[in-house]
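Structural prep section.
Before we set up the soaks we want a predicted structure of the protein with cobalt (II) ion in place, mainly to decide which crystallisation condition to try first. Input record follows.
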Amino acid sequence: MSLVMDHIGVAVAELDAALAVWRDQLGMPCLEIEDVANLGVRVAILDSGPTKTELLEPLGTDSTVGKFLAAGRKGIHHVAYRTTEIDAVLARLRAAGVRLIHEHAVPGSRGTRVAFIHPASCNGVLVELVEYPVAKGGGH
Ligand code: CO
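Run finished without errors. Recording the tokens verbatim:
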């Protein structure tokens, strides 16, 4: 049940302005921009090597990232780890009484299944678990 670093999520007020820096100035190619309505974010995934960088623009002020920014917070919003068995990991965390934002996995970007662990249970870090769909035709 090992976890592998997958991406960091950065909260941004305006995606276009953020891309002008992260993509255009820092030079990380943008792999995809996707609205993930159920999580209330527009996500830009930047290629920063095996660990991606995710820019998160809120789709509404009542979304998690919208509230984060409205509270005057900024910068790194969450850290994500990849697993191939998210259901088993979540079952173990539930059994251990770890505080979860999602008791069960929900749809994420790119066909992933994701769940967030409450920062109260991870030393103040909002941790995301990600399970990728089984690759078609091999590859990663
Ligand atoms: Co994420």
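Observations: Residues 7, 9, 54, 78, 80, 128 surround cobalt (II) ion (CB under 6 Å).
Flagged for discussion at group meeting.
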